[in-house]
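Progress note, sequence design subtask.
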C-alpha cells in the first residue's frame, strides 16, 4: 500500500497501470496465442513478448517520466487458503509472510499486517501498550486466548453453557476499565476440523455471559437463549 500511494497519479487511477502487471493476464493471452491458435499481429506478438520478458525477469515496476522503479521478486511468500475458490491471504505464524533478499519484510497474521513482535515475541505487556485493536487481537490469537487470559491474570466474572453452541461454554472476564472480554467457541468448524476459541470485547456493564453473547449479535439475553445454533 505505501508503494501504491507513493506512485499514484492525480491524472489516472492507479489500478489502470498496476493491474496489467498481473501474470495471469500474460498467461491468458499467451495461452490464446500458443494453445488456442488465436491469431495475433506481429506488433501484438512483439508487445506480448516484451510483457512476458518483464514478468519473468523481476517483480513489480513503476515507470515514471525520466525514471523507472523496479523491484525483485520476494525470496519468501507464505499464504493460507481463505476462500472456497482457492483465494489466499498472507499468513505466517513463525516468521515473515513476505521477505526480500535485502532483508525488507512484512509480517501478517491471517491476512492482517502486524508488527514483527506479534509473530516473533508477543507478550501481555506489549499487547497492553498497543493502540491498534486489530494488532492487539492478532497478538492475543498468536499467544492463544486461554494462555493470554492466564498470563494477564484476567478475573473470571461468570460462565454459562452457550445456548447457541451446545456443548460449549461462555466465559466472561474483566479485561480493563469499562471493558470485558467474552471467551467463546466458534459455532462452525474450521478447515482443519477444529472449533476456534476466540474472545470478543464487550461493555463493562455486562455481567452475564449470555447477555454478553446476545449483545454481540444485537440480541437480548432472552433472545440469544432461544437460538438453536449460531454460526
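Output:
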Amino acid at each position: 500500500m505505501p508503494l501504491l500511494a507513493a506512485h499514484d497519479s492525480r491524472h489516472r487511477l492507479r489500478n489502470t497501470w498496476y493491474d496489467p502487471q498481473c501474470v495471469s493476464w500474460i498467461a491468458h493471452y499467451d495461452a490464446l496465442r500458443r494453445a488456442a491458435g488465436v491469431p495475433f499481429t506481429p506488433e501484438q506478438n512483439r508487445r506480448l513478448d516484451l510483457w512476458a520478458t518483464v514478468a519473468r525477469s523481476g517483480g513489480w515496476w513503476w515507470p515514471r517520466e525520466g525514471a523507472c522503479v523496479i523491484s525483485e521478486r520476494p525470496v519468501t511468500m507464505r499464504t493460507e487458503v481463505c476462500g472456497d475458490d482457492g483465494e489466499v491471504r498472507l499468513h505466517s505464524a513463525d516468521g515473515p509472510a513476505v521477505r526480500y533478499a535485502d532483508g525488507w519484510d512484512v509480517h501478517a497474521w491471517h491476512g492482517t499486517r502486524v508488527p514483527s513482535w506479534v509473530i516473533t515475541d508477543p507478550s501481555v505487556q506489549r499487547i497492553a501498550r498497543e493502540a491498534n485493536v486489530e494488532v492487539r487481537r492478532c497478538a492475543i490469537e498468536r499467544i492463544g486466548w486461554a494462555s493470554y487470559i492466564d498470563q494477564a491474570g484476567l478475573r473470571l466474572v461468570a460462565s454459562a453453557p452457550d445456548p447457541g453452541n451446545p456443548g460449549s461454554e461462555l466465559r466472561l472476564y474483566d479485561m480493563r476499565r469499562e471493558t470485558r472480554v467474552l471467551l467463546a467457541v466458534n459455532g462452525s468448524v474450521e478447515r482443519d476440523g477444529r472449533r476456534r476459541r476466540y474472545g470478543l470485547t464487550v461493555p463493562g456493564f455486562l455481567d452475564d455471559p449470555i447477555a454478553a453473547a446476545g449483545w454481540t449479535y444485537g440480541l437480548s439475553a432472552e433472545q440469544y437463549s432461544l437460538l438453536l445454533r449460531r454460526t
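The longest strand covers residues 169-176. Work on this subtask will continue into the next period as scheduled.
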